[in-house]
Amino acid sequence: MKKRILWIITSLVGLLLIALIGIGNYFYNVAINSNNEAVDLHDSNAETASATIEEEHEKLEEILQWTEEQVFEDVEIQSKDGLNLKAVFLENENPNGKAVILAHGYKGNNTQMPGVTRFYYEQGFDILKPDARGHGKSEGDYIGYGWHDREDYKQWIQFLLNDKKEDRILLHGFSMGAATVLMTSGEELPSEVKGIIADSGYTSVHDELSHQLKYLYHLPAFPIMQVTSVVTQVRAGYSLTEASAMEQVKKNKLPIMIIHGDLDELVPTDMAYQLYEVAGGDKELWIVPEAKHTEGYTVEEKEYQTRLMDFFNKTVN
Predict the structure, then answer these.
(1) Which of 148, 184, 197, 223 sits at 20 to 30 Å (Cα–Cα) from 85?
(2) Could you give all domains of the chain from N- to C-terminal order, each with its CATH number?
(3) Is 113 left (phi over 0), alpha (psi -120 to 50) or beta?
């Protein structure tokens, strides 16, 4: 009888482990495998969202026309783990050594952020817009959510220093791109990197995917995130808990601006307060009224630009 009970218990535990591994692989494929059609966790086109659709459509047409008139250079680097990573580089007609790296969001690419791109150009910046690993034209079969991308960004910074002779560099990211620049901020960076701007970033990959699990599937984080983290460690080489913007910004020494919409449901606004609280270096926090995920530039364009110019004056001008 005891042997039979032991066999039943062992079988149930085995079935549970198989089920959990299956669930972990499922969520890995949904959220991290770049080759799959993943759930749209983030509205990566939110920069063009607006309550006044006709006005924004006209503005977007104007921005896209300007974009088409620019000559973007295709550039690339090789990551430390052997991936060919692509980007476009826009040289200002009056180059002065200022450059910005613009980091796109989840499932985005370097064609996005056209309005911010033009604004930076008008302020005299050269502009580098990478495709994150596993996105756009860059190689990679998984999404790093900023963690492995932080090492890629160190190489993109060196590209700007060595190949483009820039001497003042800003990093500005949106959503996953915000987490990328926040994670990069905790690394040892060249003195030419002058500041970090993070719009709608999350505290850690574990926190954000746990939130999405509840938001999209109405499921608790435990034990699904723990199992998915193990699967991610095996298949992508990082765990969901180690990929932490919170831990990285504690080591930051640069001026940093954290921006977040007060109506953001996809990356909860509270994450901005948490990041600001622990961030090192000179820091500022702007919670944009009536703005959803990454909508700050659209909802408060003039104020956004004014705050950026103030940041420029403190960092690169």
Answers:
(1) 197
(2) 73-204+243-315 (3.40.50.1820)
(3) left
Question: Please, which residues bridge with residue 172 across strands?
Answer: 102, 197
Q: At what angle do helices 149-162 and 176-185 cross, to 10 degrees?
A: 70
Strand order in the sheet with 98-103: 73-78, 84-90, 126-130, 98-103, 168-174, 193-199, 256-261, 283-288
Under DSSP, is residue 163 helix (H, G, I), strand (E, B) or coil?
Answer: coil
Percent of the chain topping pLDDT 70 = 87
Are the C-beta atoms of residues 231 and 252 closer than 8 Å to each other?
A: no
Query: What distances in angstroms separate CA 75 from CA 24, 159, 168, 184, 282, one per listed residue?
Result: 36, 10, 20, 21, 33
Residue for token digits 């690419």?
Answer: 109
**Residue, of 311 and 214, whose pLDDT is higher:** 311
User: How many residues does the structure list for the chain?
Assistant: 317
pTM equals: 0.90
pLDDT at 55 over 90: no
How far is the C-alpha of 301 from the C-alpha of 172, rounded, in Å? 16
User: Could you give the angle at the alpha carbon of 282 between the alpha carbons of 247 and 279, nearest 5°?
Assistant: 15
CA distance 55 to 61: 10
The crossing angle, in degrees rounded to 10, of helices 2-31 and 224-236 is 60
Contacts of 235 (CB under 8 A, 6+ apart): 28, 32, 33, 142
CB atoms within 10 A of CB 19: 11
Torsion of CA 142, 31, 188, 247, to 10 degrees: -150
Q: Are 180 and 241 in contact (CB under 8 A)?
A: no
